[in-house]
Design brief:
It comes from Microtetraspora glauca. The protein is of the alpha+beta class and about 500 residues long. It is about 25% helix and about 20% strand. It is built from 14 helices and 18 strands. Strands 1, 8, 9, 10, 11, 12, 13, 14, 15, 16, 17 and 18 form a twelve-stranded mixed beta sheet that branches. It has a four-stranded antiparallel beta sheet with strand order 4-5-7-6, with helices on one face. A two-stranded antiparallel sheet has the order 2-3. Helix 7 runs antiparallel to helix 9 and helix 13 runs antiparallel to helix 14.
């Protein structure tokens, strides 16, 4: 693949942020190593390389080449060994525990050995670092040494979520020395990973192969580039053959195929949905929440807005996740405008003003917000849409609690327990009204206590449909993600969700 992206991405940013080892020539053109380079087009720009400060889980794409986690969540959603070679759950007089055996003989690039002490230091950092985004996932967790290469995790609530949780940022291991020294990891790394940081620019990070990595097959390319591009810039890069793999919107599929790319589509774990503040009128009334759910024709949206490349959803989990109950379908949310209008009238909500907030610039979310606005108005409400920056969506809906409805995408977490806690438990960030459904709370607790992953999946399928009893959540659809892959690429597998690719063994 030709490499013309450096100049293009430089236009998108304001200049060089920093260079962490290595250098850029001229306008930032990358010199290919003899082993070649692999270039990926990311769906989000990066903001940090610190595993404990990742603002949204989708940005883990930038830290994953640098930091091995304790476990690995494969594209088929199976949990596999990484820095941990095996784990076993149990329970004693002190409660549930997970015994983890660590891979031995490994050292960080700074010479620090990877041991049980490393795990303890990392858990403490994740739980106590100011603004840590891993702290919620590790709440209630303690860890103790059980030998030089063994640790025991405990959580009185249960440890069933830990094998998958520890495959994400919460399980990424930072060097003891870097932690002790308070090293700023926002633009440099201190992990055991198949790659090291070469250069960091706005919207573009270049990684170099780590020659001392414990699994030599993982870094199949000598250079890895991750670029964030706008749709227009991405289209130009595809036409010139400057990307090896990227996610493309449906309207760019034909152009990608014409440029010689192979297109593969897959459903993921991302469920586009609306969350309600059940404390704000008229959504404190279950009849209004049901009416809004019934007012949206999910199948028509899939056909009209997404050319059929999506799956309508009427439950909490996305159609591409293992926790989705295929038998439930749209049972709870059949399109029924007349019933929706009557429910609004019965609730005395006719003419009620409703503000919908969503992310400006996200085409899918803007389209869904517009459709919901139209349908709300059709059934008797007075709806408006506010397009704001991502932090403002969170601020207005969860902190200020000033708007009734927010558009989002649930399911972008390594373990379902995190998604459940965030959206449908009483203390959830995206449940600002604190709505409590006893059955959902019971099933959520049961799933965390259960340590058999197959049994956990069955519990979550029950929860996925139980959420719809009170219409506290409004699922819409799971899009099919289109991956454009160059004919020169080998080793690529579509990830379990769009923003969580694995570059292990991938060559451009």
């Amino acid at each position: 693949m030709k490499r013309r992206l450096a100049a293009a991405t430089a236009v998108l940013g304001l200049g060089l942020i920093s260079a962490c080892g290595g250098s850029d020539d001229g306008a930032g053109a990358t010199k290919e190593a003899p082993g070649g380079a692999f270039t990926f087009g990311a769906v989000l720009a990066d903001t940090t390389l610190d595993p404990d400060l990742i603002p949204v889980r989708q940005m883990v794409v930038y830290t994953q080449p640098l930091y091995d986690s304790l476990t690995y969540l494969a594209p088929d959603q199976s949990v596999q060994p990484m820095l941990a070679t095996e784990w076993k759950a149990g329970e004693d007089g002190d409660g549930p525990f997970l015994d983890v055996t660590l891979r031995e003989g490994l050292t960080f690039p700074d010479g620090t050995p990877f041991t049980a002490t490393t795990v303890l230091a990392n858990v403490k950092r994740s739980q106590t670092l100011k603004q840590s985004t891993n702290a919620p996932e590790l709440a209630g967790v303690t860890v103790e040494e059980a030998g030089p290469a063994k640790v025991r995790f405990r959580n009185p609530a249960g440890v069933g979520d830990l094998p998958r949780t520890l495959a994400g940022p919460s399980g990424m291991m930072i060097s003891d020395k870097a932690i002790d020294g308070g090293t700023d990891l926002t633009r440099q790394s201190a992990g055991i990973g198949p790659y090291t940081v070469k250069t960091v620019q706005p919207n573009r990070i270049v990684y170099a192969k780590n020659p001392d990595y414990w699994d030599p097959r993982a870094a199949a390319s000598d250079t890895l580039e991750i670029n964030y591009l706008t749709d227009d810039a991405k289209l130009n890069a595809i036409r010139t053959g400057d990307l090896d793999v990227t996610v493309v919107p449906e309207q760019m599929v034909t152009a990608a195929e014409a440029a010689g790319y192979k297109i593969e589509r897959s459903l993921g774990t991302e469920n586009f949905s609306f969350s309600f503040n059940t404390e704000i009128k008229p959504f404190d009334d279950v009849r209004v929440r049901e009416a809004v759910n019934l007012a949206v024709d999910r199948e028509a949206i899939c056909k009209g807005l997404f050319q059929g490349q999506c799956e309508p959803t009427g439950q909490f989990f996305a159609a591409g996740s293992a926790q989705y109950d295929p038998a439930f379908g749209l049972t709870a949310v059949p399109f029924d405008l007349e019933k929706a209008k009557k429910l609004i009238q019965d609730a005395g909500a006719t003419g009620a003003k409703v503000e919908i907030v969503t992310v400006a610039g996200n085409q899918v979310m803007e389209q869904l917000a517009s459709v919901l606005q139209q349908q709300m108005n059709t059934i008797g409400l007075q709806a408006s849409v506010s397009l704001v920056a991502p932090p403002q969506v969170v601020g207005k809906f969860t902190a200020e609690k000033s708007v009734a409805v927010a558009v989002g995408a649930s399911g972008n977490t390594f373990d379902p327990a995190t998604t459940v806690a965030r959206y449908v438990l009483p203390t959830g960030l995206y449940n600002p009204g604190g709505f409590r459904d006893a059955e959902v709370v019971r099933l959520a607790a049961e799933a965390v206590r259960e340590t058999d992953q197959d049994k956990r999946t069955e519990v979550y399928r029950k929860l996925s449909t139980a959420v719809m009893k009170d219409f506290m959540f409004m699922p819409i659809l799971t899009t099919k993600t289109s991956y454009a892959t160059s004919s020169t690429v080998s080793g690529w597998r579509n990830p379990w969700a769009p923003a969580f690719p694995s570059f292990r063994g991938v060559k451009g």
